[in-house]
Amino acid sequence: MGRAVTVAACALNQWALDFEGNLERIFRSIDIAKSRGARYRLGPELEICGYGCSDHYYESDTLLHSFQVLAKLLESPATQDIICDVGMPVLHRNVRYNCRVIFLNKKIILIRPKISLANAGNYRELRWFTPWNKARHVEEYFLPRIIQEVTGQETVPFGDAVLATKDTCIGAEICEELWAPNSPHIEMGLDGVEIFTNSSGSHHVLRKAHTRVDLVNSATAKNGGIYVLANQKGCDGDRLYYDGCAMISMNGETVAQGSQFSLDDVEVLVATLDLEDVRSYRAEISSRNLAASKVNPYPRVKVNFALSCSDDVAVPTCMPIQWRHHSPEEEISLGPACWLWDYLRRSKQAGFLLPLSGGIDSSATACIVYSMCHQVCLAVKNGNADVLADARKIVNDETYVPEDPREFCKRIFTTCYMASENSSQDTCNRAKLLAEQIGSYHINLNIDAAVKAIVGIFSMVTGRTPRFSVYGGSSRENLSLQNVQARVRMVLAYLFAQLTLWTRGMPGGLLVLGSANVDESLRGYLTKYDCSSADINPIGGISKTDLKNFIQYCIENFQLTALRSIMSAPPTAELEPLVDGQVAQTDEADMGMTYAELSIYGKLRKIAKAGPYSMFCKLISMWKEICTPREVASKVKHFFRMYSINRHKMTTLTPSYHAENYSPDDNRFDLRPFLYNTTWSWQFRCIDEQVNALSFLYGFIFKALAMG
């Protein structure tokens, strides 16, 4: 009778405006889907042009080239006998929409515009697109001539409709619509839609995957049905890493899971499912059936095609599986590593250079590069021809095969320890040992001559010589001497990145990696234009606490024993003079707060939307066992004072892998002033009034208890 349907969800590593490459990856996904028996192929959001086109969406070229790609897809024999669901921008009546274009056998069936646009955090869809606000309404869309010539159609349906095939009913959601409180799948399901599709452009955030999985499974748990989710993967030219995780769910349970982190440019997830399982599941939910009897019907576009075969009794169907989640440490090891690989191969550079200080942050960055090398070797071992071809281009050797991560690391990764008179032998040894264990090409150099030359110029011009605090200098002198060292390191990093391979007789240049973590950036504990200034930063969105756990993960999984001493050493900038040959300066003492406290401040400031007063109110409860209200007030004031003084540094922050929702990235995620009134006079006065009120209350209670 036709009950077993086979559907395909694709995770594609699309690249903004790479129409040639995007088309090739779409074709590959369709070929794979058809070879595995799929009759419906779903791709990621805006896959034709790439999700991250940003203000290029304003350009008519982006629309033109998207239709040119669509024409190539429509006219190709590869797209015959399978319903193809692709994403692209469409201009309808001079309004730009984020759309799904669904076609079959050279005919466009439906153009479905996005209803709920993503417009928070990293997303700015309302800047470029308009939501379709006409529920259950369909209009005629007049096709451009290049499409008319292929399809023979002059107009096609455009709007909020569902597809009625010979054997089932299919309804589309687009990314954000799954996350909306009034998701379309709710009423579509009540109206008899049995298969829901969702094309996403959803990026990775630590510990986020389970939320997406829960949303997909819950979409069909109450209402029954099959849910097919496709997602973009990889770095498409920005700070985000789209993490795939294509999945297929039925009646509240996952039946197929795609990879979250992979170097495969094309991944196709296929599942065969029994429609009768959906119908029997729904049949016994009386509350659902009562609601269904009153629902407003969706316009149905009839499709003379079936997703099942007439004789499919013996066709095996997929069974529920248990979703396998990565630990946060695994996510840090894999996500930024895949992002770095995309950036390296697409920028056509020859590798990376990292100033390796021997501390946790730069060591964690080095470990991520080493993890990337592991992923490359594993992908080549598993037969990934794309990765092999890219690796050969990067190392400029057409016969090269990366097999050993350490050997590959030696070719593409340069680490550099930049010592000064304030550096300890311990950090030098730690950096050298870690470089040996991961296999990087390691350089030791001393920056004292450059620092003395710069300070000498200042002294020659002004007749004054600044001194460190320990030698009687003021705080201004002390800070300026630290900043000179830090900035010299940035200049040298770029010099060595450009010319190190030249000295080794190798072509190309290196990308400079930064290694400031999210907490330091939030506090502003970095020198503007020091080694935090780089081309990209794989750990800029990761907290110090998570980085420490990641270091422990690397000790256990990569056997990098050099990390043990790095883990046990207190974090230090090593910019002030040593005392008896030992480091006297530590990060937390300099900052006036711990990294653990910084993470809490960051989450309250960004995620909980707390200003100084609200943060104080929350923390007097959270920290009631360890701090008095007056101590909490002092800590909150110090944080906001330092945060606001240093906020200007975020305007030049190195592009970082986005991994935390409390990132202070000023580019598009955390939009705030960079010139504050750093006294916060009104806000701090409110805190003081509350502290005084609490002190009076506590005093009254204590007195009452004493009187007994």
Which labels suit this protein?
single chain, 708 residues, four-stranded parallel β-sheet, 20 strands, 3 domains, 14-stranded mixed β-sheet, Nitrilase/N-carbamoyl-D-aminoacid amidohydrolase, Rossmann fold, alpha/beta
CATH topology description of the largest domain:
Nitrilase/N-carbamoyl-D-aminoacid amidohydrolase
Total strands: the figure is: 20
Determine the N-to-C terminus distance. Answer: 83 Å
Query: Quick check: average pLDDT?
Result: 94
Keywords: ATP-binding, Ligase, NAD, Nucleotide-binding
Family: In the C-terminal section; belongs to the NAD synthetase family.
GO cellular component, one term: cytosol
Subunit structure: Homohexamer.
Description:
- This is Glutamine-dependent NAD(+) synthetase.
- Pfam families: CN_hydrolase, NAD_synthase.
- In the C-terminal section; belongs to the NAD synthetase family.
- It is a single chain.
- By secondary structure, the chain is of the alpha/beta class.
- The protein has 3 domains: 4-322, Carbon-nitrogen hydrolase (Nitrilase/N-carbamoyl-D-aminoacid amidohydrolase), CATH 3.60.110; 329-449 and 488-591, HUPs (Rossmann fold), CATH 3.40.50.620; 592-707, no CATH class.
- Strands 1, 2, 3, 4, 5, 8, 9, 10, 11, 12, 13, 14, 15 and 16 form a 14-stranded mixed sheet that branches. Strands 19-18-17-20 form a 4-stranded parallel sheet, sandwiched between helices.
- It is globular.
- The relative contact order is 0.08.
